[in-house]
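Hello,

Following up on my earlier ticket. Below are the two sequence lines again, exactly as submitted.
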Amino acid sequence: MEKDTLQQALPLDQMLIAQYQKNKELITANDIQYVSKLREEAFQTFMESGFPHSGMEQWRHTDVDVLTEDAYLNEMEVPDTKKDIEELFRCDIHNFDTETVSMLNGWYIDKDSPLKTLPEGIVVGSFREAMKAYPQIFEKFYGKIAPRNANGFVQINTAMMQDGVFIWVPDGVKSAKTLQIIKIINKEEQLFVQSRNLIVLGKNSELSLMHCDDSVNQQSSLVNTVTEIFVDENANLELYKLQNLNDQSGLINSTFVQQMANSNIKTNTLTFNCGLIRNNIHVKLDGQGSHADVLGLYLMDKQQHIDNQIRIDHNVAHCTSNELFKGILDEEASAVFNGYIHVARDAQKTNAYQNNNNILLTPTATINTMPFLEIYADDVKCSHGATVGQLDQEAMFYIRSRGISAANARLLLMYAFAADIINEISIEALRQRIDDMVKKRLRGELSVCDKCVLHCGAPEKDYHFDIDLSKI
Amino acid sequence: MLLNIKNLTVAIEGKEIIKGLNLQVNKGEVHAIMGPNGTGKSTLAAAITGREGYEVTEGEIWYKDQNIIEMDADERANLGIFLSFQYPVEIPGVSMTNFMRTAINAQREYRGLPPMPAGEFLKLMEEKKKLVDIHSKLTNRSVNEGFSGGEKKKNEIFQMALLEPTLAILDETDSGLDIDALRTVAKGVNELRSEENAFVVITHYQRLLEYIVPDFVHVMYDGKIVKSGSKNLALELEDKGYEWLKEHSLA
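Thanks for your patience. The regenerated structure is below:
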């Protein structure tokens, strides 16, 4: 540990470079050869490029220097405390029965086996274990869905990641329950955490996945997650991302999806709290008839910052995509939305829709929203829209004229604004829970508590602001 | 006296719209306010219900023995004042059921009552739905979202029936209604009329007043009430047109 303490005196990039060079054997000890080879390439790229900076177009409005110039502890060995993660938190969502896998400080934590096959046939487990058990899957997909020229965060992740979640849904297999990945950060020191996920859906398969990022204390941390997802023909993926970290934390989340013919995905990124969040979501529509819904909701306040960078590549004909991101920004919060749609020359009959709507509650909150359409085909339908506004004063008066206080009228309108996204959650129990969380967040009652994002705090108060149909 | 408006002057962005208006309404009465476009009828409704941006520069509005001009819209509503909007607002994402339950419980809280139990609320909804012949599928939808013009107006009366106000102001509730919807709306209003409440019905046309028969008719012109009379005044107005009124007010 003395070594780590020394390294903590360096800025993050230099610390990581030094750590990689000194500990290459340790880092690659568990690898298959293919993974090691990618590490080396990515490391060289990172040495040249370093972390992205605000001089780069796609990082213009998000200054990550505040995070990367700091010193962190990066654990390279599996910590010996393999205590049951259930001691830290327990999932108790009513009627919401999930298959849970847990990550603590970036390490896969398991009760029984690091790699298991669920009754319906889905293989789920630790990334480091899976690469040895399924080398052919890794060689086929790992590092191939994320572009080789991706940014420095992706490179350093590829170079130095140690663990993550691996999910393989074989052809024709359908998930019986929602699979929930719970990622908790809990450490005395300021941690740098990397995790790498590989998710492969076979032909005609189905997966419902919930990915929760939480921190359980107020210590600052920087999390750098890279997820690669392959969705084969006729497969269906629903992916919910819940982000609820403390105000001191940074989260860089990069998700790369490749879709084959007639596949469907729906991603819903719900951001409740975090000091700085960067979501890169990149979907490649590589098979005809594929469809992607890429949705998101962000509710930020204080001096929090969120940057959603969405890229959809329409590479072949007859694909459709639908992007909708909505945000409410309070106090001095800031947000960025960049929606990039690329339609290749042969991608005729593309239908791509993009929308970003924002409500700014104060004059000091800011949003930079940028649609970017690059179209090389001539028979396509693409539309984009962005709105920035305040709460509708006509509607405020209408609600208040029925006796509802100004504060509750505001809440109703904010909730109504968010409802488009919440209503897209097709798992009923999850939708209700998110619904409660949004209401709490809008009231300022949701905190980063000592439990996972899905079971924090007291139950919903019953009548001041009751808009849950299920309760009547 | 339930409502007593004394020498009221109201300005929007510095421009005077209502210029010294007087009106007295007692419980059990229905008052109709008629007049051409742009004479301040809707401004009067806004001033009584406390809409922001409508500045009372002179005069007083007394309601249940309090001068309410400093009160917020929600407090006035909690005291029993209701406005049926000329243009009801669509609120996507908020269901009618939740909206009304929140409103009823806000008003109950103001009166020191506990929240209405869910079962009782649903029963009340069912009962009031029949009154205005409103379809259940509408009450399960978001407030006014995708409602036709007629459905929106019925929905206003439905809300009024649920909230049971003491003073209801109907701002051009007849506009955009076909004859069947007009009859339904009027029937709803008539069933809610009692000795304990009062209505101020703002309308362009005499037609509505065939169904909601007023005790008094007032004619507004250029920010003032220029003539008051019985229900026959409406017929006279219909007959002679508003031009007649212009001469009348200049005289």
